[in-house]
Design goal:
EC 2.7.1.78; 7-stranded mixed β-sheet; transferase; Cleavage polyadenylation factor subunit clp1; 10 helices; Elongation Factor Tu (Ef-tu), domain 3; Jelly Rolls; globular; single chain; binds adenosine-5'-triphosphate; alpha+beta; Rossmann fold
Length: about 475
């Protein structure tokens, strides 16, 4: 990573830049390959749909994408992506392919601010190194949806790795997976640089990979948002925090590098008096809170946790990047489907070969995680009342496989299927995920797609209302993403 120079954004624009600097507003751009000169501290913003491919190559100078430097002359291809290539000192890009929009962003003060936060974290890590019993910074990132939280987390992680650190990234947003499909919490210590096109990439729980492995700790969260089941969500936070803390105690480098926690926008909830954020701060012993995109949230956090409160935790208000954009429901659905596909089939650079497993009903220990959204989807499927006992107050219920599971993702837990303690079932980490590709109620058997050839024996298999069913996973399986 190159540090920012003294040039001011907007100065020294070439003609190409000034014309490219206008938002195109067109729904689809198809272009021949062409060169774009970027002045220092500017960024090339683009939005590419899932049907398009857009390629960028740095031909001179240095540029980075969310904290990860692009290698010179290497083409990077993006699909289903909204992002920005930032340059501190200026660069030239070769751009080709299709995009929904592309433009030169000159308001990059946010990036300088983010880099300053990285500098603060480095100081805290140095302090932790000198006083070895203390851990590094434990950072919580909060804010409404689509304000750049995940981009900030990714940038801070990328810069930390460039500085030789091994930060632990925790994703508590079940809408979007990190090294996993949606519907999970992940904690992963990052020891090698992230990928430009694919962020955190894929992990061994998806199958053997050729890239350096990042082994995540995964918990199952089959709800799209915390308000669906706040108590379960909080219990899973406690479980994750305990496991992460224990893991850091075994690895001094990771402990000194600290934690960065990404959260869903739904935690920004004054009505509940930010109950879940309070829980998170206490369980992870947070030392720094970064708020994005909401002045009210910043003030509320400052009052509740800031230096004047009994908690005395620094709370900072961080700028939202000008390029951060809303991803509508259709885009999010495609993103979620793509994450599920990638879990089983890998990416165009790192493809995987999933395996088919058939189990009889008698061999399976299936549990359903009840939730309001699952109850709603069952009633819309017109389920027989006896098949859909979701009115039950139990969080998990043992069940016989049925057609409702078709197209769903199931979590294979480390605990035994004979587990009767609901809390042990909830708190057990995930060994891997499988996809229900066929349910034969007449022959009483279920066919799954799973990343590994080994069967999972009598382990507990849990599914819930999230993520939603994917209908076209098998059959499109040969397609690479
Ligand atoms: N500087 C930027 N230029 C262009 N696009 C950006 C920029 N920063 C972020 N984005 C894009 O804007 C979108 C929203 O950003 P991001 O996912 O970081 O927000 P978020 O607050 O984490 O959202 P959510 O709460 O949904 O997880 C993403 O597609 C991201 O890649």
């Amino acid at each position: 990573m190159a540090l920012p120079g003294l040039s001011l954004p907007g100065l020294g624009l070439s003609q190409a830049q000034s014309s490219a600097g206008l938002y195109t507003g067109s729904s689809s751009l198809t272009q021949e390959s062409r060169m774009e000169d970027l002045a220092p501290r500017t960024e090339w913003r683009f939005e590419v749909s899932f049907q398009q491919q857009y390629t960028i190559r740095v031909t001179s100078g240095h540029a980075e994408l969310f904290g990860v430097e692009l290698a010179p002359n290497q083409p990077y291809t993006f699909s289903g992506c909204k992002a920005a290539i930032l340059t501190w000192h200026g660069c030239q890009l070769e751009v080709s392919g299709d995009a929904e929009s592309e433009y030169l962003g000159q308001e990059t003060e946010y990036a300088v601010e983010w880099l300053n936060v990285h500098g603060m974290l480095e100081t805290a890590r140095d302090d932790a190194q000198m006083h070895s019993s203390e851990g590094g910074p434990r950072v919580l990132v909060v804010g409404p949806d689509f304000v750049g939280k995940s981009s900030l987390v990714r940038s801070l992680a990328g810069w930390a790795v460039t500085y030789g650190r091994t930060p632990t990234i925790v994703n508590l947003d079940p809408r979007e997976g990190l090294l996993t499909p949606p519907g999970s919490f992940t904690a992963v210590t990052v020891g090698s640089q992230l990928e430009v096109e694919n962020g955190f990439g894929i992990s061994p729980i998806s199958g053997p990979t050729i890239t350096p492995v990042k082994t995540p700790l995964v918990y199952h969260c089959p709800y799209s948002a915390p308000p669906e089941k706040p108590d379960v969500y909080k219990a899973l936070i406690t479980r994750t925090a305990l496991s992460v803390t224990n893991k850091l105690e075994e690895n001094s480098g990771a402990k000194q590098s600290g934690l960065i926690i990404d959260t869903p926008g739904t935690l920004n909830d004054p009505k509940s008096n930010y109950d879940i954020i309070t829980h998170l701060v206490s369980e992870f012993s947070i030392t720094l809170i970064l708020t994005l995109g909401s002045e009210r949230l910043f003030n509320d956090m400052n009052r509740k946790f800031g230096q004047q409160s009994s908690e005395a935790i620094p709370v900072l208000r961080i700028s939202k990047p000008g390029g951060a954009v809303e991803r509508d429901a259709a885009f999010m659905k495609q993103l979620q489907n793509q994450q599920i596909r990638q879990y089983f089939f890998g990416t165009s650079k790192d493809s995987l070969n999933p395996h088919s497993h058939t189990y009889s009903f008698a061999e399976l220990n299936i549990f359903r995680a009840n939730s309001p959204s699952l109850a709603a989807s069952s009633s819309s499927m017109d389920m027989d009342a006896s098949d859909a006992p979701y009115a039950s107050h139990a969080d998990f219920e043992r069940m016989t496989p049925n057609m409702e599971m078709l197209g769903r993702l199931v979590a294979i837990k480390f605990c035994s299927g004979s587990e009767t303690d609901e809390f042990a079932l909830r708190d057990s980490p995930v060994m891997g995920f499988a996809y229900v590709s066929e349910v034969d109620e007449a022959k009483k058997r279920v066919r799954f797609l799973a990343p590994h050839p080994q069967k999972w024996g009598d382990r507990a298999v849990v599914w819930g209302g999230w993520p939603q069913a994917v209908t076209d996973l098998v059959g499109s399986g040969t397609k690479q993403y």
